[in-house]
Design brief:
This protein is an alpha/beta fold. The chain is built from 14 helices and twelve strands. The strands form two sheets. The chain has a seven-stranded mixed sheet, with helices on both faces. A five-stranded parallel sheet has the order 2-1-3-4-5, with helices on both faces. Helix 5 (98-107) links the parallel strand 3 and strand 4 (113-115).
Length: 326
């Protein structure tokens, strides 16, 4: 071996060892942040996301890591949690409300955000359009204009004598004003008077429920909101004490003792959100992934609650239900 060959051989040794070391490095395990306003125990639908990941070949702790951040029904905690996830440099953040989506986007414009449950992301200013989101946010919307009218129609089938309906809504939710307007429009066509009660924070919920009672309604309806879902037991118990027939947007309310629920399947939405996460982890850009609207809706009726209220559910309605709790 001549001197020149020796220089080439040994001079290239560090590079060769670097290449070997890199080849032996384990692949990077993606980290996915979960940011929700809900209480962890109040999010059974989140298991749909975990199942979606499993269906796509992901195993928690092996080839994917989930960083869970639940605000325990306190939206004011979302901003700090979003910053924490951004500082951890997670690969994607999955959210279940417009407030959580806004917090995640404010914390980082570089980290992709996948919405599992957001009412109207366009009205909320989160995306440019459903077809072309245009930024770092994509996922699923629960936007479905006919829902408000459908819920009132279902209430009237059960309690046709109810001419005054109290509506609880959170005006800090960007989609809520539009949903309330749609509810009023549907109510006018049915000859129903709407009494709206606004509530922004969980700490104001008891006062809001007292305001509902003061309106002496014939029935109760709540608009979609993560804070309401997290506090559904308090709302359901109020309806029971007040002997108010009520309809809610999520099946979890009926499972907690609410009379009836009708709305998009949150479990199906979370399951589908895993598809978006997978696409992004494989290189897709959120701006290029169209936002999907709900295709599966659930009607859940709690017969135990109906009997306690002295209400007879029409057989035709029971036959249309996706689940009847007996």
């Amino acid at each position: 071996m001549n001197r020149r060959d020796a220089v080439v051989l040994f001079g290239g040794a560090p590079l060769a060892w670097q290449l070997v070391a890199r080849a032996q490095e384990p692949p990077k395990i993606p980290r996915v942040g979960i940011l929700t306003v809900s209480v962890a125990s109040s999010m059974p639908a989140f298991e749909g996301f975990r199942q979606g990941l499993r269906d796509l070949g992901y195993v928690e702790g092996q080839n994917i890591v989930l960083e869970l951040r639940f605000a325990q029904g306190r939206p004011e905690r979302l901003a700090a949690m979003a910053v924490e996830l951004a500082q951890m440099k997670v690969d994607v953040i999955v959210v279940e409300s417009a407030q959580a989506a806004r917090a995640a986007a404010d914390a980082s414009r570089a980290i992709p955000v996948v919405m599992a449950v957001v009412g109207d992301p366009v009205r909320a200013g989160l995306v440019a359009s459903l077809a072309r989101p245009g930024g770092n946010i994509t996922g699923l919307s629960t936007l479905s204009p006919e829902l408000s009218g459908k819920r009132l129609q279902l209430l009237k089938e059960i309690v046709p004598q109810a001419m005054r309906v109290a509506v609880i809504w959170n005006d800090s939710n960007p989609a809520a004003a539009g949903n309330l307007a749609e509810t009023r429009t549907a109510a006018r066509s049915m000859g129903v008077e709407i009494r709206s009660v606004e509530v922004r924070k969980a700490s104001d919920l008891d006062l809001a429920l007292e305001a509902v009672a003061a309106t002496r309604p014939g029935a109760l309806l709540t608009l979609t909101n993560g804070m309401f879902l997290a506090n559904r037991t308090r709302i359901v118990e109020f309806a029971a004490r007040s002997r108010l027939p009520a309809i809610f947007p999520d099946r979890e309310f009926a499972q907690a003792g609410g009379l009836m629920a009708y709305g998009p399947s949150l479990t199906a939405n979370f399951h589908r959100a895993a598809f978006y996460v997978d696409k992004i982890l494989k290189g897709a850009k959120p701006a290029d992934l169209p936002i999907e609207q709900p295709t599966k809706f659930e009607l859940v009726i709690n017969l135990k609650t109906a009997r306690a209220l002295g209400i007879t559910i029409p057989q035709s309605l029971l036959l249309r239900a996706d689940e009847v709790i007996r």
